Amino acid sequence: MSLDQRVLEVLNERTSSHQVNNRSKLPLVVIALLSVSLISSLALSKINPQVLLFAGASPDPRDVRVTDITASTFTVSWRTEEKTTGYLKYGLNPDNLTFTGEENNQNLQTNQHEIRLNSLQPNTQYYYHIVSNGKEYLGWEGNLFYPIKTVGKS
Predict the structure, then answer these.
(1) Which domain range does residue 141 map to?
(2) pTM of whole model > 0.85?
């Protein structure tokens, strides 16, 4: 018998047999049993209860895409749940990202971000990080950002 079924059974027994001396305690019992049921379900499903109970809009990059790769340009786009400002740090060495790429309107907070990097060298590998709301991200959802190689001269 599942915990949810047991909760319903106990509630039915209590309300039908008139053994509840103080009906004002019944809502507290229901809340306690439902809380135990929720926590047990979370534990069994391996979901982090903190994430479930305190989830909200996040500035973390999601759905990162690199498109329009040419000999001298590429575009990085991503979305955030929270409206944020963002920019890219990029360079030829992953430990020394010396350049920045900014959105068209640097002061606009948005959920959809897109940055086109121009004047790049052909046939060259570039590394990048996303900066969202001042925090630098090396990857998204557990994945590191892959280096991007521009195409050779056309």
Answers:
(1) 62-149
(2) no
User: Nearest to residue 86, comparing CAs of 68, 111, 58, 55?
Assistant: 111
Residue with tokens 């959920």: 111
User: Are residues 69 and 44 both part of a single domain?
Assistant: no
Give me the tens of pLDDT residue by residue for the chain, a chain 154 residues long: 655 566 556 556 655 554 445 555 656 665 655 555 555 554 444 444 433 333 468 899 999 999 999 999 999 999 999 999 999 999 999 889 999 999 877 778 999 999 999 999 999 999 999 999 999 998 866 677 889 999 987 5
| Burial call 94-128: b when 16+ CB within 10 Å, e when fewer | beebeeebebeeeeeeeeebebebeebeeeeebbb
Number of structural domains (the chain) is: 2
Residue 19, domain member (yes or no): yes
Separation of alpha carbons 7 and 4, rounded Å = 5
In a shared domain, residues 68 and 132: yes
Residues 6+ apart with CB under 8 A from 106: 85, 87
* 26/97 same-domain check: no
In-domain check, residue 18: yes
